[in-house]
Amino acid sequence: MSTIDSVLTENRVFPPADAFVGQANISGRAAYDAMCAEATNDPENFWARLARENLSWATPFTRTLDESQAPFYKWFDDGTLNVSWNCLDRHLENGNADKTAIIFERDDGTSERVTYRALHARVAQFANGIAALGYKKGDRAIIYLPMSIEAVVAMQACARLGVIHSVVFGGFSAKSLQERIADVGATLVITADEQVRGGKTIPLKPAVDEAFSMGGCDAVTNVIVYRRTGGNVAWNEGRDRWMHDVTAGQPETAPAVPVEAEHPLFILYTSGSTGKPKGVQHASAGFLLWAQLTVKWTFDLKPDDVFWCTADVGWITGHTYIAYGPLAAGATQVIFEGVPTYPNAGRFWDMIARHKVSIFYTAPTAIRSLIKAADNQPDHHPDKYDLSSLRLIGSVGEPINPEAWMWYYKNVGGERCPIVDTWWQTETGGHMITPLPGVTPLKPGSCTLPLPGIAAAIVDETGGDVELGKGGFLVVKRPWPAMIRTIWGDPERFKKSYYPEELGGTYYLAGDGANRDTDGYFWIMGRIDDVLNVSGHRLGTMEVESALVAHPLVAEAAVVGRPDDLTGEAVVAFVVLKQERPDGEEAKAIAKTLREWVGREIGPIAKPKEIRFGDNLPKTRSGKIMRRLLRVVAKGETVTQDVSTLENPAILDQLGKAL
Ligand code: WT7
User: Fold this and answer.
1) Are residues 588 and 640 in the same domain?
2) Would the pLDDT of 58 be above 60?
3) Which residues bind Mg(2+) (predicted)?
4) What is the rounded average pLDDT of the residues 552-571?
5) Among 511, 531, 551, which residue terminates a domain?
6) Residues 602 and 587 in one domain
7) CATH of the domain at 595
8) How many angstroms is it from 126 CA to the middle of ligand 1?
9) Are residues 527 and 542 in the same domain?
10) Is the pLDDT of residue 3 over 60?
11) Do residues 506 and 584 share a domain?
12) pLDDT tier at 8, thresholds 50, 70, 90
């Protein structure tokens, strides 16, 4: 059954257990309703109260929201604070210095614990080290590191100085790295010799060297290298330095530079429907507030919890729910270097048991692959492990199909743990629509209701409200503190992408289609633009197309998504070569070459699952590629739509056949 079909027939409801409600940070529907009412009636006071109660300010703010330049909203803008101080120093002052901040588990199963005191010292030393190299507030640093304590240290050290970081996922290619270094105008790059995943080492520093060789990186004066494996790396004297040399001899305390609330904390690149990935810019105070609050609200964090978010710090989930939120909230968290299936499919469950994880947050794609793996490796089925420490489990990144939800609920959550299916985006900074575990009756496949203060709604193409039960565009009608501030270097694109005139120009357009049922629950139906969601990662079809046409053999390419049981969506590419259409072994060989090419241009996640060759692409008489038809063809279905506007209808038969 397809996700959409099963979602629309889903009618199971799982109310929260009384025991959970009794102890929850937000407890019961009345408490939620009261918060929503406060936020609706007087949003400025609502947010101001939360910002005063939850953050430590260097200079208290007096202005809550400045809408004068909307949609370039400013929050708390005459206040100053330091994000790293809020994540570290204040826990030392609160008597939590010896609390474990991070349990880091390496790929090989060994682990290490770091207290808040020790983490603070390491961040201070590294901050002092990069300050000694001349880095200061407003500079931009690219971070290209594996999952590690050092990744958190690097991010926090930047925040401590007001250096704006841009983390690039370690799975992205040298080319993607180079584009980001150049676009953000980085003067510092922080990387590692190699990363270790699933028993294999994967080079990182060589990708940095390759990025430099492509040009556009001249502003970078230092490349700091964390020695993870001791593997051989080329060395550029004068530019490259080891991380341990940068920190050696540095004091274990460092000033936390107060920055304006709106000072950019980071820029994180994400795919859009057109052109190059966009640099989503987040502000310091608003982002931090929401990161901390949602950890307490959605995850119901308590002092004794052990929190584990399995995301990579290269994605927004790793920013909000590893590098900042849990630390701001004073949590103990697990950080994992490796992959869920190494050394076997029980790795996650074994880690939950060993570290007594109580809150577990992962992606549907991981759940789906572990369902399959548990079938193949019955010895590593979750029921072979002691998962009794869990009290709450979460999902993020893509719609979770009800079947996977039920498996997760039964086999991992023991029918005892609420599942928080959290809808949000790189641009939203933190959770937006999600169950509150002590409030919301759960429906498998629904992200349920907006958090207090989040004015989510569904509208039609003119911005008008649609009635419950009818689908439409997911929007947010009022600004919120953690929202994207702009696209780095391209404010016009920010306005056009997220605040389109067609909807009136005042609603944030998420880019997702959604439905609301008669209980007001949101059901996300997927992207409405040319953005794919592959294993919970966003990928622009245009990005993959540009990568393909950059290959000397390719004349033209069209890329679409196809539903996939494992990855949610899979990339299917239709390619016209400059030479004659290949078939047989030749076609297979060229397809392989092109897949690898895309892997090098963007990263392995962008490799098309399938490539089909045609003499042409289905186009209208005006030359527009009909992707709608290609989506049907990619699924192996017969086109039943009207094709009379097509210049060359016969091409559909040719493209309908797999290699
Ligand atoms: C897109 C955002 C949120 C952090 C990770 C992804 C999809 C995200 C859900 C969910 C259905 C979801 C949306 C959204 N998405 N969470 N719980 N249910 N869809 O961040 O890379 O910025 O992608 O992921 O389509 O727009 P991202």
Assistant:
1) yes
2) yes
3) 549, 551, 554
4) 95
5) 531
6) yes
7) 3.30.300.30
8) 33
9) no
10) no
11) no
12) low
pLDDT in tens, 419-459: 999 999 999 999 999 999 999 999 999 999 999 999 999 99
Residue ranges making up the domain that contains 485: 1-33+457-531
Q: How confident is the model at residue 9 (pLDDT cuts 50, 70, 90)?
A: low
Residue 584 lies inside a defined structural domain of this protein? yes
- Whose tokens are 């007087």? That residue is 42
Using the mean position of ligand 1's atoms as its centre, give its distance from the Cα of residue 399 in Å: 8
| pTM of the predicted structure, to 2 decimals | 0.95
Contact 271, 543 (CB under 8 A): yes
Q: How far is the CA of 167 from the centre of ligand 1 (A)?
A: 19
Q: Is the distance from the beta carbon of residue 511 to the nearest atom of ligand 1 less than 6 Å?
A: yes
How many whole angstroms from 403 Cα to the centroid of ligand 1?
19
My answer on whether 606 and 638 are in the same domain is yes
Could you say which DSSP state residue 592 is in?
H
| Sign of the dihedral defined by the CA atoms of residues 598, 600, 602, 604, in that order | positive
Q: Is 424 in the pocket of ligand 1 (CB under 6 A)?
A: yes
635 in the same domain as 551: yes
> How far is it, in rounded angstroms, from Cα 640 to Cα 647?
17
The minimum-distance atom of ligand 1 relative to the CA of 447 is 17
pLDDT score recorded for residue 658:
80
Pocket lining: 421 vs ligand 1, CB cutoff 6 Å: yes
Nearest to 268 by CA among 428, 418, 419, 134: 428
Tokens of 508: 């944030």
ipTM (interface pTM): 0.98
Judgement on whether residues 469 and 519 belong to the same structural domain of the protein: yes
- Which residue, of 531, 559, 577, is where some domain finishes? 531
pLDDT band at 381 (very low <50, low <70, confident <90, very high): very high
447 lines ligand 1 (CB under 6 A): yes
- Does the beta carbon of 362 lie inside 6 Å of ligand 1? no
513 and 550, same domain (yes or no): no
Q: Whose CA is nearest to atom 1 of ligand 1?
A: 425
State pLDDT tens for residues 330-373.
999 999 999 999 999 999 999 999 999 999 999 999 999 999 99
Ligand 1 center to residue 620 CA distance, Å? 32
- Binding residues, by number, are 197-200, 317, 397-399, 421-426, 512, 527, 535, 538, 549, 551, 554
- 85: which 2 tokens? 């101080």
What spacing in Å lies between the alpha carbon of 104 and ligand 1's midpoint? 26
Domain count, the chain: 2
Say if 239 falls within a structural domain. Answer: no
Burial of 304 (0-12, 13-18, 19+ CB in 10 A): exposed
Per-residue pLDDT at 2: 42
- Report whether residue 425 contacts ligand 1, using a CB cutoff of 6 Å: yes
Angle made by CA atoms 90, 96, 97, in degrees to the nearest 5: 85
Domain at 486, CATH number: 2.30.38.10
d(CA 361, CA 420): 9
Q: Counting atoms of ligand 1 from 1, which one is nearest the CA of 271? A: 21
Report the candidate in 605, 649, 612 with the shortest Cα–Cα distance to residue 629: 649
Nearest-CA neighbor of 544 among 570, 581, 571?
A: 571
Judge residue 622's burial from the number of C-beta atoms within 10 Å of its C-beta, 0-12 exposed, 13-18 middle, 19 or more buried.
Answer: exposed
- Residue 216 has, within 13 A of its CA and on its CB side, a CA count of 16
Binding site members for ATP: 397-399, 421-426, 512, 527, 538
Beta bridge partners, 531, equal: 540
Nearest CA to ligand 1 atom 21: 538
pLDDT (tens digit, 9 = 90+) per residue, 215-235?
999 999 999 999 999 999 999
Annotated binding site for Mg(2+): 549, 551, 554
